Amino acid sequence: MSITQRKDTRLFVLLAGFFITNALIAEIIGVKIFSLEKTLGILPFQFDFFGEEDLGFNLSAGVLLWPVVFIMTDIINEYYGLKGVRLLSFLAVALIAYAFIMIFATIGLTPADFWPSSHLAIYAENEHPEILKKVGDYNFAFKLVFRQGLWIIIGSIVAFLVGQIIDVAIFHQIKKKTGDRLLWLRATGSTIISQLIDSFVVLFIAFYIGAGWSLGLVMAIMTVNFIYKLFVAILLTPVIYLAHNLIDGYLGEDLANQMKEEAAK
Question: E strands along the chain, which residues?
C-alpha cells in the first residue's frame, strides 16, 4: 500500500489542509471589525470592564474562524499527538507570514492604466452606477483592506503560536488524568484557556505595545472578546464529538485506537 493510500496519511492531509486554510483566512479577514449585535438585529450590549464603559461585541471578523482552528488543534492532537500539532502550527505560521509578504508586495505594484475602470465597468453595465461612486480610488481601497499594521501581524502570529502550545499542553494534561473519558473537558477546556491567553497576547502586542492603548482598555476589549469565544467554544462542543465519530468510522476501531494510544505517549 502506497503512503497516499493509507487512511492515517489521507486524514492528516485533510485535517492539515483545513487547519491551515482556516488559520490563513482568519488572519486575512481579521482586518474587518463588525458589530455582532447589529448583525443579529439586536440592541448592543453595554458592558463595563476595567473602567471602560459601554463596551459591546465589536469583534474582528477573524473570531468567526479562530474557534474552529483551536478545535481542529484538539482533533489533530487526539490522533497525531504533540508532534503533529507542532508541525502544523509552525507550518501555518510560516505560510501566514509568506501570505502577508506577498500581500505587501502586491500593494506596492503600480496599477495598469485600464484598471480598475475596466473591472468596475461591469457594475455600470448591470445598472449599478452607485458602485463607482462608493469605491472611489479602487487601488487605495485595495491597500486599505489588505495593509494591516505590522504590530497586528506580529501580535496575531505570536498569539497563535502561544495559544497552540498552551492548548496542546492542557489537552495532554487533562487526558493523562481522564484517559479516553471526558472528551468535552479536554477539548473545550483546553480551547477556552488557550483562547483567553490568545486574546490577551494579540491585543497586548498589537495595541498596548504597537498603538499605545492603556492596559485597562486592552483588558476590557480582551474580556469582551473572550466572552464571545467562550460561548462559541461551548456551542461547538457537539461538533467535536461528531468529528471524532466520523474519524473513528473512517479509520476503523483498531486503527483509531492505535493512533490515539501513540498520540498520547
Answer: 33-35, 47-49, 52-55, 58-60
Least confident segment among 55-69, 79-93, 142-156: 142-156
All three cell numbers of 133, joined, read 461612486
SS3 of residue 49 by DSSP: strand
Peptide bond into 116 cis (omega under 30): yes
Domain ranges in the chain are 3-112+150-264
| 3-state class (DSSP) for residue 179 | coil
Residue 228 — very low, low, confident or very high, per pLDDT cuts 50/70/90?
A: confident
Predicted pLDDT at 133: 66
- Could you tell me which residues come within 8 angstroms of residue 77 by beta carbon, excluding any fewer than 6 positions away? 84, 85, 167, 168, 171, 172, 263
What's the whole-model pTM score? 0.83
Q: Which three cell numbers stand for residue 180?
A: 479516553
CATH fold for domain 3-112+150-264: Arp2/3 complex 21 kDa subunit ARPC3 (1.10.1760)
Torsion of CA 108, 110, 114, 118, to 10 degrees: 0
Mean pLDDT, rounded, for 50-66: 84
Give the span between the Cα atoms of 171 and 29, in whole angstroms: 28
- Do 182 and 197 meet the contact criterion of CB atoms below 8 Å apart? no
Q: How many CA atoms within 13 Å lie on the side-chain side of 140?
A: 4
CA dihedral in degrees (41, 43, 44, 45; nearest 10)? -130
Closest CA to 81 of 169, 183, 178: 169
